[in-house]
């Protein structure tokens, strides 16, 4: 099974439930700050999903997206929900997949009016290509109930702000049309989620929205006609197939190359061991093709890991003394290391899980301190190799 899950976030309870119904054996995962995730796998799939409800608004979406990324180190992050259509060719129940997201509320107010200063984030090329392939093949409609017209999938910009738009005549509606006339849909969380993904490097983030209204003053009517659950079901169906494909793509990219291929690749570089102090060398080689897995030898004692943790604590103290680590971060890291030490006392499946989780939390705390991050990567690999 792919060890890196796909994180799926939603803003509304009905959106959350639509995704949860696609999970087998969802189990509660409590974050130390109170956020509750449910982790399961997709039906008839090996893809693991971590699901969370973030509430309305870009700010809460950004905070909890960052929390989910730090907690699970996912292969990708999806935001799934409903939105209002901004163009007449998009029908109720259709699905809009963001090619990029506008955070449209940024700007400056001057004597001659409001000047827009938007921010925009693009969806990663690879994720966009996978989503388009799914739309072309129509594989995502297999689990939809048969009821009339098959929904279409549209690719284009989505506008994300802090208000619910339900008018074509208001000043706000006119301003959106004037400044963001290429946006296909409007919603309230996408900008926060994609910004969190942007700040975490190359993490693929995709915003998927089912169209439940037309943002034109008829929202009350379409809500009464139950377009929200219908639109959510369509978005969830597309998201489930996309999650499976993203997980499979990630897993395939992590597979080692075939033996025949690797034998034909000579190493010409001379590699020098530059590890210092208590640092430990995980792999010393020239160009490395394919993936690397560092594990303990069969039946190796866990004292190796205990020694590594002790060395890491020494390096941690030195980094703190040198002023490269603030006191709050140091205290938080020490708390997680205490959890790791406790979990290491008994080699059970539950304690191994606690150990790796604590070390991943440490990684999130010290990720920008290079002299610690490299050593911790080897320790995490050792912990994952315990059996």
From TrEMBL:
Family matches, as InterPro entries: Nucleoside_phosphorylase_d (IPR000845), Nucleoside_phosphorylase_sf (IPR035994)
CDD domains referenced in this protein's UniProt entry, alphabetically: MTAN
Pfam families: PNP_UDP_1 (PF01048)
Domain Nucleoside phosphorylase: 5-239
Signal peptide: none
Top-level division of the source organism's lineage: Bacteria
PANTHER family linked to this entry: 5'-METHYLTHIOADENOSINE/S-ADENOSYLHOMOCYSTEINE NUCLEOSIDASE, 5'-METHYLTHIOADENOSINE_S-ADENOSYLHOMOCYSTEINE NUCLEOSIDASE
Protein's recorded name: 5'-methylthioadenosine/S-adenosylhomocysteine nucleosidase
Organism listed in the record: Microtetraspora fusca
């Amino acid at each position: 099974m792919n060890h890196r899950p796909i994180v799926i976030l939603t803003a509304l309870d009905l959106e959350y439930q639509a995704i949860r119904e696609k999970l087998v054996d969802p189990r509660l995962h409590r974050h130390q700050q109170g956020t509750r995730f449910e982790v399961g796998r997709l039906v008839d799939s090996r893809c693991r999903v971590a699901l969370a409800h973030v509430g309305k608004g870009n700010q809460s979406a950004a905070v909890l997206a960052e929390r989910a990324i730090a907690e699970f180190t996912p292969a990708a992050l999806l935001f799934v929900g409903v939105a209002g259509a901004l163009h007449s060719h998009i029908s109720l129940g259709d699905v809009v997949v963001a090619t990029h997201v506008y955070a449209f509320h940024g700007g400056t107010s001057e004597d001659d009016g409001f000047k827009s200063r938007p921010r925009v984030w693009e969806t990663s090329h690879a994720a966009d290509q996978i989503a388009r392939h799914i739309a072309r093949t129509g594989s995502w409609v297999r689990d939809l109930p048969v009821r009339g017209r098959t929904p279409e999938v549209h690719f284009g910009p989505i506008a994300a702000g802090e208000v619910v738009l339900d008018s074509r005549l208001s000043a706000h509606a006119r301003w959106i049309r004037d400044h963001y006339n290429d946006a296909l849909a409007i919603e309230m969380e996408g900008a926060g989620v994609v910004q969190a993904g942007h700040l975490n490097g190359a993490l693929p983030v995709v915003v998927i929205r089912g169209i439940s209204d037309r943002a034109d003053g008829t929202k009350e009517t379409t809500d009464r006609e139950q377009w929200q659950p219908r639109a959510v079901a369509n978005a969830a169906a597309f998201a489930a197939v996309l999650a499976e494909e993203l997980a499979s793509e990630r897993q395939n990219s992590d597979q080692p190359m075939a033996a025949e291929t690797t034998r034909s690749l000579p190493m010409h570089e001379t590699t020098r061991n530059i590890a210092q102090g208590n640092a430990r060398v995980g792999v010393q080689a020239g160009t490395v093709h394919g993936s690397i897995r560092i594990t303990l030898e069969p039946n190796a004692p866990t004292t190796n890991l205990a020694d590594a943790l002790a060395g890491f604590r020494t390096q941690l103290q030195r980094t703190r003394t040198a002023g490269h680590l603030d006191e709050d971060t140091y205290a938080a890291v020490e708390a997680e290391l205490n959890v790791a030490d406790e979990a290491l006392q008994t080699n059970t499946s539950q304690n191994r899980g606690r150990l790796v989780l604590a070390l991943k939390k440490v990684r999130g705390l010290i990720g920008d301190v290079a002299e610690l991050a490299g050593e911790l990567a080897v320790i995490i690999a050792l912990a994952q190799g315990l059996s």
